[in-house]
Specification:
Number of strands: 2
Order of helices and strands: HEEHHHH
Strand content: 5-15%
Largest sheet: 2 strands, antiparallel
Helix content: over 70%
Number of helices: 5
Shape: globular
């Protein structure tokens, strides 16, 4: 049942992330600036730290494929990016798990 909650929270964050990117474009002079918060990536990193590496890897693969198919400019970019960031976060968490300052940096 928890896995379903993790997946549903991920779907909600995916759509909130997309809506924020579409609603908050700014123009400064002739330049268009778009802020994208990447809530899905932050969620996956938190799952990696507080749940487990395996759950984070499965969610990273699923949501990476979904994001690639939804935005569709370059397939595999989000898939491999999410997986890479989850692996790096797991490595750094295992290395710096006692030092909170280094973990937050």
């Amino acid at each position: 049942m928890r896995a379903l909650y993790y997946f549903l929270i991920g779907i909600v964050l995916f759509y909130i992330d997309t809506v924020i990117g579409l609603v908050i474009p700014m123009q400064i002079g002739d330049k268009d600036i778009v802020f994208v918060p990447h809530l899905m990536l932050m969620y996956l990193l938190l799952i990696c730290v507080y749940r487990s590496f395996g759950v984070a890897m499965i969610l990273a693969a699923v949501f990476g494929i979904v994001t690639d198919l939804y935005f569709g400019s370059f397939y595999g970019l989000y898939l491999f990016g999410f997986i890479l960031f989850v692996v790096i976060m797991d490595f750094f968490f295992k290395t710096f798990y006692r030092d909170n300052t280094m973990l937050f940096i």
